[in-house]
Amino acid sequence: MKKYKWAVISISLIAFVAVIFLFFFVKTATVAHPGAMQLMLPEDKNDTLSNSNSSNNTITIILYENDGIYSFTGDDIKSGSKFSYTGTNSIKDFLLQKKNQIPEDGMTVIIKSGPLATDENTVDILDEMSTNSIKRYALTEITADEEKFIKSLEK
């Protein structure tokens, strides 16, 4: 009988491992895209904020320094009060109360950020809009009169 000699085959695994690492990094780079909250802005029309049935259906929220929140209903800025993000006087409770009082299709929330408010405050209030399922809200600039009023509150 003939004896067969088995040939010794040496395979270099360097190329195989390199291809696996390349595939892994390409796959994780394409999957790990940062996510962002979608922001729905009104179209550029003159009547976007004024088509509410009544000024009492409009809630204005003003963000100012030190995580301060001032909110009022309608046009009278002096009729509002201060709120916080948590606690007994929270903006969440206020929004839920107003949501129960005002029909959802007529309720509009106007968010105004003061010059010393942080981006975190804006993100937090947008998060409140999302978690409370408030459909109509807009980010607008704070007026000079509102800014003076907020400064008078801080004294």
Which features does this protein show?
155 residues, Nucleotidyltransferase, domain 5
Summarize the structure in words.
With 155 residues, the protein is of the alpha/beta class. It has a domain at 55-154: Nucleotidyltransferase, domain 5, CATH 3.30.420. The chain has helices at 14-31, 91-101, 119-131, 144-154, and strands spanning 58-64, 68-73, 81-83, 108-113, 137-140. A five-stranded mixed sheet has the order 3-2-1-4-5, with helices on one face. Strand 4, helix 3 (119-131) and strand 5 (137-140) form a beta-alpha-beta unit. The longest helix has 18 residues, at 14-31. The protein is elongated and about 110 Å long. The relative contact order is 0.14. Mean pLDDT is 80; it is low at 47-53.
Nutshell version of this structure?
The chain is α/β, with parallel strands linked by helices and 155 residues long.
